[in-house]
Amino acid sequence: MVELSHDSRPIIGRGPPLTAYFLALAAISVGLMVADQRYHQIDRIRESLSRVIYPVQRAVDFPFRATDWVTGSFADRSRLRQENLALTARLRLANLQLQRFAVLEEENRRLREMRANSAGIAEKVLVASILNVDLDPFRHRVLLDKGAADGVFKDQAVLDGDGIFGQVSKVNASTAEVILISDAEHAIPVQSNRSGVRTIAVGTGDQNKLSLPFVTVESDLQAGDLLLSTGMGGVFPPGYPVAQVSKVKRAGSTFALVEAKPTARLDQAREVLLVWFKPRVEPAAAAATAQPVPSGTPADVPATAAPAPATAPSPETVTPPAQAGGE
Amino acid sequence: MFARRLLYWISMAAGLVLAIVPLPGWLDPFRPDLALLAMIYFVLTSPRIAGLGYAWLSGLFLDVLRGMVLGQHALGFLVVGYLTHKLQLRMRMFPIVQQAVIVMLLLGLYHFLMFWIDGLTGHGFTGWVRWLPVLSGALLWPLVVALGDSLTRRSS
How many whole angstroms separate alpha carbon B78 and alpha carbon B63? Predict the structure, then answer.
């Protein structure tokens, strides 16, 4: 009885036996996975592969961007007018608040200087747009069109116009992957704006829900409280809105069941801000950090510090960057 | 032969692109692994072209595209490619429905591997939704065969 070979490759030049080939490649894959988890040399391989892949991601993104552009440029006049009116109204309101803000900002800066502590004011922002690419339906990650070439670094904070959006988890040559605050693997230290209670907000895998698992039954939190970032851990700048408490249930004996809704528009944002800031300054260095920006006229200070998208400056306009995010 | 090779690479690239195209939310969990189905199809119809190296490489590209642990999809593609090579003499004889069942088993194995590695690397997602691509992939198999047959007939 003749046994048929499963190996249908040409007999001449067929290379190693199929099973040996399989085992070798499987060993390489396992090695790659282990190396990727443990060591960072592998990042270079990933980066060079991502260069090859970048055009593909761009190509996928292109039709969506083109549709946006087309609908944008052929929008009818009445809609544009309406949009314009709404924006003007919003701008008027924002300007009104900004006037007060300029004074407060200056006062705050003076107070902080007295305490020799100018921690955590966003110094430099860079606008990045989200590529229309679907990474994984079960993980909340997005891809930005800015990468190492633009000075983006790992663990950099990402904000949108309404609050904290996420942090950079992988940096490629010209793209960066961001993990959203709603990802089940993400946690962020927060503080209630009303009562000052500090806790941690953990992602749930649902874009409209964060969970606060470490709140005791007695702690002073109630629905409607705004949760701000504390700046602990040095990743996020302090004082930016993260979420609004949506549900507090004091059922158990120790921990309350608390849920919050992120203020950032995690599922709708098209453009986000990458933020550079100083996590903490040594008292000795504080004198030297009275930088050219704050010493300008108070009126133009907010333009560099506010996370408002309208004022997002180009990276060159502001102060020497705190690139590494800490000293 | 060259045309067949080109077709293989083009369909692979198309499969990879379709793996990251944004879909509407409710459709997203059903996204079939078209690159994997294309690979299975080519191993069955032209095993001299679709070798393990190619399968592994396209898996690796998928890893980079989706930002997964490097080697995860590569290993999945490799295992499915190897098993298909082992089974191809039998599978080519099967009627299409039976073929779809085998493909479903292969996809199930692939997704189990992905699930397992996800768990090991700490990205575990345990919802039943993650097994939907196995079903949608098996249902799409006859379509993939029909499309592939009409394309290869033209190219060769």
Answer: 13
Nearest CA in chain A to B86: A6
Looking up tokens 């290993």, which residue turns up?
B75
Closest CA to A25 of B118, B55, B115, B84: B55
CB spacing of B68 vs A37 below 8 angstroms: no
pTM: 0.72
- Determine contact: A64 vs chain B, CB below 8 A: yes
Residue A306's Cβ-side half-sphere holds a number of Cα atoms within 13 Å equal to 23
This model of the complex carries an ipTM of 0.84
How far is A12 from chain B, CA to nearest CA, in Å?
Answer: 12
Q: Does A44 touch chain B (CB under 8 A)?
A: no
Structure tokens belonging to residue A192: 């209630």
- Residue A44 host element (H or E): helix A42-73
Instruction: Give me the total of CB pairs closer than 8 Å, taking one residue from chain A and one from chain B.
Output: 119
Residue in B28, B78, B85 nearest the CB of A29: B78
User: Which residue type occupies B90?
Assistant: R
Residue A69 at interface with chain B, using a CB cutoff of 8 Å = no
**Beta-carbon separation of B20 and A57 below 8 A:** yes
Q: What are the pLDDT digits (tens) for A133-171?
A: 777 777 888 989 888 888 898 889 998 888 899 999 888
**DSSP class per residue in B64-127:** HHHT--TTHHHHHHHHHHHHHHHHHHHHTTS-HHHHHHHHHHHHHHHHHHHHHHHHHTT-----
The residue to which tokens 């609004």 are assigned: A244
Do A6 and B31 count as a contact with CB atoms less than 8 A apart?
Answer: no
Q: pLDDT tens digits, residue range B96-142?
A: 999 999 999 999 999 999 999 888 887 767 778 888 989 999 999 99
Fill in the DSSP letter of residue A216.
Answer: B
**Helices B132-155 and B96-120, interaxial angle, to 10°?**
120
Question: How many other C-beta atoms are found inside a 10 Å radius of the C-beta of residue A106?
Answer: 16
Sequence-distant (≥ 6) Cβ neighbours of residue A6 within 8 angstroms: A18, B85, B86, B88, B89
Which residues of chain B does A12 touch, with a Cβ-Cβ cutoff of 8 Å? none
Contacts 24+ apart (CB under 8 A), A290-293: A290/A113, A291/A319, A291/A320, A292/A319, A293/A123, A293/A318, A293/A319
